[in-house]
Design the sequence.
């Protein structure tokens, strides 16, 4: 999703946000360090298959997805999606930098409950060099994610 489309969507919904440019980075932890955002506040989007359908699992940069727990939250089998399962849905996004707005692509969004603990959420905004930051409550209002406990912290 080009950042322009996401900005327009947020502007049309009266959401205040900040866009932070950074050096090209590929891991969520690298990005968090570069933009000076705590790893627990920077969300990474993990593309998953829930009962064979593409969905997003959104977890803090410092966490990994527990697929057994995600299956419990979803009430169906959950597996890691392969690039070929979703890449065509995001033609103008860098792979691995999709923003967690699956609602714009008719896909479910599952959010780790730990992301609710902070006032703000930050995430890659379609490229490996831009991050967007906004209030979590605005994100939740627009995306209407399914929130649950399905991630764990890793070193």
Sequence:
């Amino acid at each position: 999703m080009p950042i322009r489309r996401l900005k327009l969507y947020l502007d049309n919904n009266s959401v205040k946000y900040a866009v932070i440019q950074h050096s090209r980075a590929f891991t969520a932890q690298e990005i968090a360090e570069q933009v000076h955002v705590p790893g627990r506040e920077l969300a990474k989007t993990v593309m998953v298959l829930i009962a064979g359908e593409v969905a997003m699992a959104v977890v803090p940069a410092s966490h990994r997805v527990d697929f057994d727990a995600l299956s419990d939250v979803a009430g169906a089998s959950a597996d890691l999606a392969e690039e070929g399962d979703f890449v065509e849905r995001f033609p103008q996004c860098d792979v691995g930098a999709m923003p967690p707005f699956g609602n714009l692509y008719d896909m479910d969004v599952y959010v780790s409950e730990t992301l609710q603990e902070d006032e703000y959420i930050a995430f890659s905004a379609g490229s490996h060099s831009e991050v967007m930051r906004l209030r979590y409550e605005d994100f939740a209002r627009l995306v209407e994610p399914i929130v649950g406990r399905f991630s764990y912290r890793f070193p």
